[in-house]
Amino acid sequence: MSDFSADFALDGEPEREFNPGIARRMAHKTVAAGALIRDPAGRVLFVVPNYKPYLDIPGGIVESGEPPSAACAREVREEIGLDRPAGRLLLVDWTPGRGPWSDQVQFVFDGGVLDPAGLTLTPAADELTGTRWATLEEARPDLRPSVFRRLSLASTAAETGQTLHAEFGHLLST
Predict the structure, then answer these.
(1) What's the chain's average pLDDT?
(2) Which cofactor does it need (predicted)?
(3) In the chain, how many domains are there?
């Protein structure tokens, strides 16, 4: 993780709350980060979670004080044993809260184009039952519609070199 001590020194003393306790009463969003990893044929590397019935990309929740790019690299390493930095930011997608989950800001980073034949993936047994390479269309029945939309936009961003902004998988701006 980056050391921001020099930046903190430049910014000076932390802000003081004008109304004590107000920061604790403000809404807190969950932040997640994942990697869009592709193969030369255009297939996406999906993880098969053991805690939900849908496919996802390698990634997870950003810890307190952790930059999203560092969280992406950490989660990819923890989930599938692949040690590589997060690439270029492809997409920022906000998702509304549903069920037990708060709303989230989700970052999708470029995980690169890798040859599956040269990879040794080690799915984390406490989280995953495996991995799967598939095109988005092949995986569509096993993806939540919002995740399909998000990954479609992330794929477009990877192809065009743009970084995209979405809400619940719907493009807002370029």
Answers:
(1) 93
(2) Mg(2+)
(3) 1
